[in-house]
Amino acid sequence: MPTAARAKRTYNRITLFYTFLLLLSFLLYLLPPAISLLLRPYARLLLFIAHNKAVLRELKLILNLLPEVAKILSLEFLIIGIYAWWGTMMFANSSEEGRENFSSWGASVWSLWTLVTTANFPNVMMPAYSKNRAAVIFFSSFLLLAMFLMVNLLLAAVYNNYQEERKGFQKNVQKNALSNLRAAFSVLDVENNGVIYKPQMLLLFTELNEHIAAIKHIPKEKQDVMLSVLDVSGDQEWDLDEFLGFVAVLQIEFESEENLKGLVEHSFPSVYASPTFQAVEAAVLAPSFEYFIDAALILNTLVIMLQNKHELVGDSSSGEMHGGAVVMELIDVVFLVVFVAEVLLRVAVVGWRRYWGSYRFRFDFVVTFLSVFATVLYWLPGQIQEKSVVQTIMMVRLLRLVRLVMAVNAFAVIGDTVTEIIPVCSRMFMVLFCITYLFAVTAVNTLGGAVSIDPAAPSFPALMASDYGTSNFYANNFNDMLGSFVVLFELLVVNNWTVTCDGYEIVTGSKLVRLFFASFHIVGVLIINNLVISFIVDSFSTEYEAEISSRKGEGAGGVGGDSKVHQFDAAALGSGSVSGKWTATVQRGKDGGKRRESLLQSMFRQRKGSAK
Fold first, then answer.
1. Distance in angstroms (rounded) separating the CA atoms of residues 218 and 221
2. Integer Cα distance of 259 and 266 in angstroms
3. pTM for the full model?
4. Torsion-angle region of residue 380: left (phi > 0), alpha (psi -120 to 50) or beta?
5. Nearest CA-CA partner of 416 in 363, 345, 486, 473
6. Most CB within 10 Å of its CB: which of 6, 253, 270, 429?
7. Per the omega criterion (within 30 degrees of 0), is the bond before 458 cis?
8. CA–CA separation, 372 vs 378, rounded Å?
């Protein structure tokens, strides 16, 4: 399909969707207030999805998975139905097992469905098993088929089909990107001679700066660097092959070494040139400085353990403040001063941009800031001075022990990989949030206010005598949105969900409430949660391989070790319009990064090869 036709079709779809939302807004305004209040939360969800392209894209992929998921769920329910029939006939109403769990085919289906979630095992089989151990054959064979086989088969199907859908989506994205770049090239090629000249390229940057909010403002100096990187031939003209790398260049962060100077070097050059500061800089950049901070963390941990020795061994009788405790707190303050000095020294030496650009230093800064805030709050006159505050301060400080774990290469690889996939996986968690929000709104509208601790309520005696009441589950209810989210999160964990369900059966007097809990388990756990797991597994495996490769120094173009940063001399690019030392950085975690990192490597490999 031509690019213009594709763009027009996309525009028409967007226009149609927003027209629908506009009409829905008018409808909500015209409806009676009671009905309008019920429907507004659903309209908010639609607006959120409409303004979040990543969520909308993932929801489309999920819809494409439904036919395959429906096939496996059909087999699952067929197995449950057959075993329910078998169990009803086997145990009958005369036995304790039959009366409790298999009194009818419907009751048998519910008992076996609960068994699939493992929420009632082994309780569901104990009456029959206590009388005849052969009953285990019925229950174990059902679990092997319905849970171990079918549930894992569903996970495999979700993972495999989602992978296929994503590959198809990525293929279409790349195809459309190339098509759009070729169309843009034909527009910028004003003389129709197969090349774009610099005035047109500069106009393109002007349009991006003025009209594309998703792209950070690109100053003139960076524009020249980007154009020089693209201009492999060095003739200040860009042919189609060179222009096709334009998007890749936009995805690379270029920064002049001049802007990455340390705070002291940039603001106080005379102080920076002094022998004293040169010695300080050498000390901060030396490995021994890292060892010193690590040793301070270990000593601080030992001090905290001594402070908490009574609580750690279960003796809470020695909680009063005394002279030794005050000394320990002062030692804590000394350690805090050391960690604050570490932050200040690093910023003074490497500069704020480089410091904040490191995830590890960023984490250290946040922990140190929280520790300082809590300490100041504790020591200020008139503030709350309780031991719990002190313990919170100490626990926050202990988070920095993560850096010791990250010093081990195997853990560092895992930590860096997790850091990279968090932005990518966030959109799947947003999908999970949307599904949970939908069910939460429905629960508040239909079941809100049903649970009450008012003794005058007709269902209160039965509720109090049930597992819901004896377990003190009264706070687990759908009376408001926050409570609904908590209950649904518990359902995602699949722990004691039957207690909440039984409570709502009592207060509503209907077993239809089971449909709500079962449907959320199917959608939230079997489909969306499995999809989240699949997404995390795939993203982690991709980024883990990239991280391993980068640490082995694979790749070209000077991108070794970390393989995310390339340092180069702009004058060597041959443009003549820009000079000085520059760095090019790829933030791999933004879009699943292995592809982006390879773009950086290939870009400079191409430059190096053309220069020979």
1. 8
2. 8
3. 0.72
4. beta
5. 363
6. 253
7. no
8. 10
